[in-house]
Amino acid sequence: MSSRNKTEDLLGIGPESALEPSIRAFRTTLTLAQRLRYAMDERLREDGLTTQQAALITVVVAAGKPSLAEAAAALGSTHQNVAQIVAALVRKNLLQVEPDPTDKRRKLLSATNHSASFWKERDEGDYAAVADWFADLTPAELDTFCELSDRVIARLSDG
């Protein structure tokens, strides 16, 4: 029995699932998220990074100079957890922390020049790997997948 079938059997997911549809969707999504995170962790491991660290850098670059609290909210994580990730990324010279000029109690995060050059070297290969992971889906299926996932994420955000 393949690991995929074993997982489907253990969690009751897959095409033969007798689970109520929302429970099957939850378990399937959780399994997918765990496998995607593991696969990206494997890609990043040689550079001493994790998927969570890469996600934080993505948020920081997209937001400009978010506060620690803003970054934690964007990741759906705790302030304490994100502070630990920030500390690791500062040690790796991928993020920097500076006081907010308007409120010295707040700390603002920004990506370093080293971070920009690091990701410039990695992005093409990482993007190709992600495309390969989703290669069995058509562009239309990927759009539907994203639209449906976005609706669930929005509902959770409202909750």
Spell out the CATH superfamily of the largest domain.
Winged helix-like DNA-binding domain superfamily/Winged helix DNA-binding domain
Strand content: 5-15%
CATH architecture of the largest domain: Orthogonal Bundle
Distance N to C terminus: 40 Å
Uncertain residue segments: none
> Helix- and strand-based class?
mainly alpha
Could you spell the SSE succession in H and E letters? HHHHHEEHH
Cα-atom Rg, whole angstroms? 18 Å
**Helicity range:** 55-70%
**What number of structural domains do the residues give?**
2
The count of helical stretches stands at: 7
Summarize the structure.
The protein is mainly α. The chain has helices at about 5-10, 20-45, 50-65, 70-75, 80-90, 115-135, 140-159; strands spanning about 95-100, 105-110.
Structural description of this entry:
- With 159 residues, the chain is mainly alpha-helical.
- The protein is built from seven helices and two strands, in the order αααααββαα.
- A two-stranded antiparallel ribbon has the order 1-2.
Essential attributes:
two-stranded antiparallel ribbon; 159 residues; 9% strand; mainly alpha; Arc Repressor Mutant, subunit A; single chain; 7 helices
Task: Please describe the topology of this protein.
Blueprint: H1 3-11, H2 21-45, H3 51-63, H4 68-75, H5 79-91, E1 95-100, E2 103-111, H6 113-133, H7 139-158
Antiparallel strand pairs: 1-2
Helix pairs in contact: 3-4, 4-5
